[in-house]
Amino acid sequence: MFKKRERRIVVIKRISVLLLVSLFSAQAFAAGSGSCGKTCTTDELSRTFFKPRALIEDVTFFLALNNYNQYRKYYGPFDNNHDDQRIYVAKGVVYQKTRDNECKLAEYFLPNNKKSITIAETGPADVDSLWLTVMAPTGSSYSSTLSLNPERTMIGGYLSYRQEFECFEGTWFEANFAAYSVTHNLRAKEVLTGDKVLGTLPGAATALQYLGGDQLNYGKISPCKIENCGMDDIELKLGYNYFNCAGTGHLGGYVQTLIPVSEKPNARYLFEPLVGRFHWGLGAGLNCASKFIEKENTALVWMADVSWEYLFKSKEKRSFDLTKNGDWSRFMRGVVQNTSVTFPLINSLTQVVNVTPGNVVNFWTALHYQKCKWHLEAGYNLWYRQAEKIKAINAACGGVVPCGNNNLINTPNAAPVGTFGILDINNVCVPVTASNATISTQRVDVAPDATFVPIQFSDLNLSSAAHPKVLTNKFYGSLAYDFMVYDRPLNVGITASYEFTDKKDALEQWGICGNFGVEF
Questions:
Q1: Phi and psi dihedrals of 257, rounded to 5?
Q2: Cα–Cα nearest to 257, from 227, 275, 280
């Protein structure tokens, strides 16, 4: 009895140390990643790219209920029917959605971190409509207000396979798979103000029509829902439980790798619906548990898991603003040197670059109560992802620019960087640039350059396309029941969760997951 109690004390001490270390590590990562160079982001920037949390990246779905069932044979004599089980297969059906009013994410995308912006042809505004080729009829002036209310919905499922090796006692292997469909909806809304007139040029009756139209090859603001579905990246784990004590708990470690199989971003739309993380990853983690109540047919178990993963560099397509010209400069118009060809800058400011996501930390802890065949679990997940690092590849994307008509809506696909500049919108028929203009600069205030000033790679604001660091908190509750099906233990449960953050760089969302676990 004394030895049993001593072992329990050791486990509790180790868990306490693990909890403290993991929490301090996550906070240290979050604090330490804020000071950096040109490739990092600040909260003042408008972003061109948003990377949601992937399903496999959310450990709550894989650990809720499943972690207890994988180790329950160590937690008490009432689970003797699990003692000879070596394989555990878990399935889940997941539904997750952002909260109804995601105004913080609107600030993430809009210039000057605003929830809505003004667009006008004359007078002060966040955006001069002429940069978007929106021109009112003679004698009137175009003006409107544009707002976003982004929404994300995800529905899919996961499969987790875990096997313990009889020949190497304490060693186990786990493979996690997921496939899901995701729907993004910016819920963009534009309301005409002032003279309440439409623009006269084709494809630019309103600013929203232009921003979602065919003139833009990338970064479109879709007025409708955008859907994407596919397979998440594959996660593999190899672990060893170096401390197992029947009736008390366990303590073990593991290494993990992420194999990218998901499709990379194409940058066609703002708030692009993404599946997976599309990067190779390596990491490690610790998993432990201890039972606090030991009565007949009853158990109360405290569990914890902390993991770290590093995601390596990979090529991705991203759209950039210009450092000197500020937010939404990618939506200004460009002109090709020695021609009268004009086009939206974003068509050429979308480049293939090297993206390094870096460190990801997941901390999970839960209390699990079992009474006979009923299970009740409550848990918490802290998720941290550091700011992305972006490095330009020294090669222009885009092809040869064709000749076109001398008007504002001539839009070639792209021009090589170094051959075009910001158009002086007062001189649309000659190759004149206005390198100091911003998207809020009114036509009368545009200052032309004395000589043609081409845009170079060094002018790209790499931070504008890099997702900043993320730190979220997630709470969940689960209810489950045990069955015996063809002499196999089957656990069926449901999990409800809510994830929140006080920043605009992550989603606040709620979710429901149906859990199914069977042992062999």
A1: -140, 150
A2: 280
Amino acid at 303: M
Could you read off the pLDDT of 331-342 as tens digits, one per residue?
A: 999 999 888 888
Find tokens 């313990």 and name the residue: 164
Residue ranges in 100-143 assigned as alpha helix (H): 103-109
User: Within 10 Å of residue 392's Cβ, how many Cβ atoms?
Assistant: 17
* Least confident residue range of 39-43, 65-69, 121-125: 39-43
Nearest Cα to Cα of residue 29 among 282, 387, 475, 314:
387
Q: How far apart are CA 47 and CA 61, in angstroms?
A: 29
pLDDT at 78: 55
Q: What residues form DSSP beta bridges with 243? A: 251
Q: What's the whole-model pTM score? A: 0.87
Residue range 235-249, pLDDT digits in tens: 999 999 887 665 677
Cα separations in angstroms, 58 against 14, 229, 361, 406: 25, 17, 11, 52
Say if residues 171 and 239 touch (Cβ distance below 8 Å): yes
Structure tokens at 39: 């490739």
- The three state secondary structure string of 229-276 is EEECCEEEEEEEEEEEECCCEEEEEEEEEEECCCCCCCCCECCCCCCC
